[in-house]
Amino acid sequence: MKPNTYLIGESAVMIRIRALIHRVAPTALPILLQGPTGSGKEIAAKEIHLVSQRSGAFVQFNASGLAESIAESELFGHVRGAFTGAYIAAPGLLATAHQGTVLIDEIADLSPAIQAKLLRALDSKEVRAVGATHTKHYDFRSIAAANKNLRQLVDIGTFREDLYHRLNGITIYMPPLREHREDIPVLVEHFQTRILAEDHICKTIRPSAISELQRYEWPGNIRQLYQTLRRTCILTEAAAIDAAHIREALATDDADITTRDTTPKEILLAALTEYNGNVNAVAKHFSVHISTIYRRMRDIGVSSRNTTRTTNKRNDNEPARSSRANFAYSGENSRET
Ligand SMILES: Nc1ncnc2c1ncn2[C@@H]1O[C@H](COP(=O)(O)OP(=O)(O)OP(=O)(O)O)[C@@H](O)[C@H]1O
Ligand SMILES: [Mg+2]
Known about the structure:
This protein is α/β, with parallel strands linked by helices. Helix content is 45%, strand content 11%. Strand 6 and strand 7 (136-137) form a beta hairpin. Residues 254-261 and 309-337 have low confidence and may be disordered. The protein binds adenosine-5'-triphosphate (ATP) and magnesium ion.
């Protein structure tokens, strides 16, 4: 039996998100889900499909780490003999989502060629399988999700602007858990049920444990809350979990996610500083042409000279961990788009 909701939370922000989903889900508007890792983008996409009452399937595609040819055949399908090993034809996920919903997750990781092909498919709802001579029409609702800020990727030239506008009928921003800590008690209750169903473990969670959970920053957001609670319930001998158990679990939790909020100028400045003003290295870091970085520097009034570091000198080609993390998790700016 289908649940009547997936998204748990009674905070003002979650009520607003649920109301927005109820307004837009029954329409054909493409939806872009933004927000940091573990904040509930995938579960929000499932909720949208549920509320939409579309008769077809909910289909998920994850672009991260896929070779271009695999991404293409997964999304668009292929005909028999399209490539070595294609012994039988296979429908793509867009076709499988006919009359349903397709979630294109980690969309920022799509290659430029697939971005172009996807734009055509979204514009016309006509899908050309790999090796096919004709297109076929499918009626699917698209939801795109990314924890990288897509607008910023458009600004630095790694994501197509036309595709961004096509996907972004509306952006729904899933906030970091630290911005709705008041949902932690209901989330904990929900996860207790899940832990009972999946792990056959039932523990009492004391109010002191809840207060401890509400004090934490949660860089890994709701996913981290669930994993922490699950681990604590499994590893604790006692029948009840209190603050000390939570403190112990969090002390060993090694999530290293940066959740600073940044503007495009700060991101570019941070990267230039990390690479000691080496524009070539920054271009490599963002996988864009060096001229794109120079253009952005000119547009926003940044010079590489005043980003040269005097201390803590590092190898220019060493990845700038902190600036990449900021780049990846600065979804905050997308809130108003
Ligand atoms: N509002 C919520 N109510 C109940 N469970 C939630 C909620 N938000 C997230 N979760 C749970 O937290 C976990 C992470 O959620 P989800 O996969 O939707 O995050 P995400 O934003 O897609 O993360 P990522 O960017 O890493 O893919 C899942 O187990 C999901 O069920
Ligand atoms: Mg996800």
